[in-house]
Design a protein that fits this description.
Length: about 325
């Protein structure tokens, strides 16, 4: 069976953001495996999740045609999404349901599965100004029944369950765009230190220490600044999150609890990424630019490639 691996970029992103991931996937020369990095949403990421998903679906159908697949042939589909791309991928999977496509691996990288309303420096009312319709959807203000919340319900949840595996990566810290909790579908982050003087100075020191490495083209210390990865998976349905709501709970919090419960009813592999460079976690985690980010994200990309191409995985160190 042929295997098509589709890489989907995030908000205000481009296909080039995922070039390093595509490079490492192609370098494996896996039998009957093809990598597709759609460019169809470049410059259009404010148009909403569903519109972007449809463009990706059209790209996939076109790619399948170019590969010369017979109508009766089944193709395995793996979807890898960065940030907003992870939500788009879930909609893509729903739109792709047909006998000729078999869902294999779903991978999200720093994706706001619970939306971006909480832990954000952007006021919800400014969401549309920043990112159009997509901004409204991410901040759960697009409708009485927000699209992101709807994606965690039937029939979308059944489609997500149809993947053979589901893996989510989230930065413990240093990701200014997507928090650890929403990326790993949790209500807490047990890995951050309580507020202290060190909690302020440590990131500054780490940033200063990273500067000489960040501008080195020789990659002489490729492993020294790589983020550690830790498998923090829990059993499906293990947590009830009963304490999330209180008497002052607003509608958006109700949606968040419902998403927590429904998404965690499925088995996930959840990988905590201990990023080493302040401010740049969101782009380091995908090695957005090989020249500047490889020292701070190669280990994440390597882990993703191992999982998607089903080779030995070393996460959990």
């Amino acid at each position: 069976m042929r295997h098509l691996v589709v890489l989907i970029h995030g908000l205000h992103g481009t296909a080039g953001d995922l070039a390093y991931l595509a490079k490492l996937l192609n370098a494996r020369h896996a039998v009957d495996t093809h990598v597709l990095v759609p460019t169809c949403n470049e410059g259009k990421t404010g148009s909403g999740i569903e519109a972007q998903a449809q463009r990706v679906v059209d790209s996939i159908v076109n790619e399948a045609s170019l590969l010369g697949l017979e109508q009766s042939e089944t193709i395995a589909i793996s979807l890898i999404g960065h940030s907003l791309g992870g939500l788009i991928a879930r909609m893509v999977a729903y739109k792709l349901i047909q006998p000729s496509f078999k869902l294999r691996h779903y991978v999200s990288i720093a994706t706001p599965h619970l939306g971006s309303r909480f832990e954000s420096i952007i006021p919800p009312d400014a969401a549309a100004v920043v990112a159009g319709q997509t901004g409204k959807e991410l901040f759960l203000v697009d409708d009485k029944d927000p699209l992101v919340a709807t994606l965690a319900q039937a029939p979308f949840l059944e489609t997500l369950a149809a993947f053979e595996t589901r893996t989510a990566y989230g930065c413990v810290q240093y990701d200014l765009s997507v928090g650890f909790e929403t990326s790993l579908i949790r209500i807490d982050n047990p890995y951050l230190e309580p507020f202290s003087t060190r909690s302020i100075t440590a990131p500054l020191k780490a940033l200063m220490n990273s500067i000489p490495v960040a501008y080195s083209f020789k990659y002489t210390s490729l492993t020294s600044s790589q983020p550690q990865l830790r498998d923090v998976s829990t059993s499906a349905g293990e947590s009830t999150y009963a304490g999330l709501l209180d008497s002052n709970t607003d509608a958006s919090q109700v949606h968040v609890q419902q998403m927590l419960l429904s998404l965690n009813s499925l088995p996930w592999t959840k990988i905590a990424v201990f990023s080493t460079r302040p401010l740049f976690g969101h782009v380091d985690v995908i090695v957005q630019d090989e020249r500047w980010n490889i020292q701070f994200g190669h280990s994440v990309i390597q882990d993703i490639v191992d999982r998607v191409l089903e080779t030995p995985v070393n996460a959990g160190v």
